[in-house]
Amino acid sequence: MTAPAVRPITATTGAGQRGPVDHERRAQIIAAADQHFRHYGFNKTTVADLAKAIGLSTAYIYKFFDSKKAIGEAICTRCLDAISEQLRIIVAEPTSAADRLRRIYPTLARAGAELFFEERKLHDIVVTAVAENWHSGTNYEEELRRVVRELVVSGREAGEFETETPLEEVCLGIEETLWPFAHPLMLEEKLDKLDTATAAVAGLVLRSLRP
Question: Is 77 helix (H, G, I), strand (E, B) or coil?
């Protein structure tokens, strides 16, 4: 899988980041970390390894990140942002809310499966991020909530979805049906039946939303 482009990091994007937001050294550190994590894995890579690969001192890297975890956060954010971007593209399309919601399920599942199959070392970072409530993981959850809410509101305004059930209850229910295809460990159990599973769940959800 081709690595997603490095996205600019703002001061609020991740925990443990220091120094100028757009400094080229920050991007260089992230790129080196990305390669090391892909090859050796997060747990087997040290800040000293990254410093050696870039030709910098360990102390200099700590000017931009306060720990290896903070660097891992930046890499994890890239992975999860790439998946979120695919969902945002679907949400913005000029089709029915039902069609867009139906497509969210397989898109989310396939993106996660691609990460699992082709970039297992990066998949392991995402597992850690979700399990330990890293900032990148919680941002990802919030993005899924925004996607769901926007589609439900759009469907209600267009008369596609029922409006009697409280909005928050509907959104929470849909989020729970999406989570097995978004959580890396839960998704792992469904890799051999993604197409049938996502189609079945999406169909069930959409039938429940009919006016």
Answer: helix
Distances in Å between the Cα of 69 and the Cα atoms of 155, 197, 200 are 40, 34, 38
User: pLDDT tens, 23-65?
Assistant: 678 888 888 888 888 888 888 888 998 888 888 899 999 989 9
Q: What is the pLDDT of residues 140-157, one digit of tens each?
A: 899 999 999 999 999 999
Whether residue 105 contacts residue 181, with contact meaning beta carbons closer than 8 Å, is answered with yes
- The enclosing domain of 123 has a CATH number of 1.10.357.10
The conformational region for residue 177 under phi > 0 = left, psi -120 to 50 = alpha, else beta, is alpha
Flag whether 151 is in a domain: yes
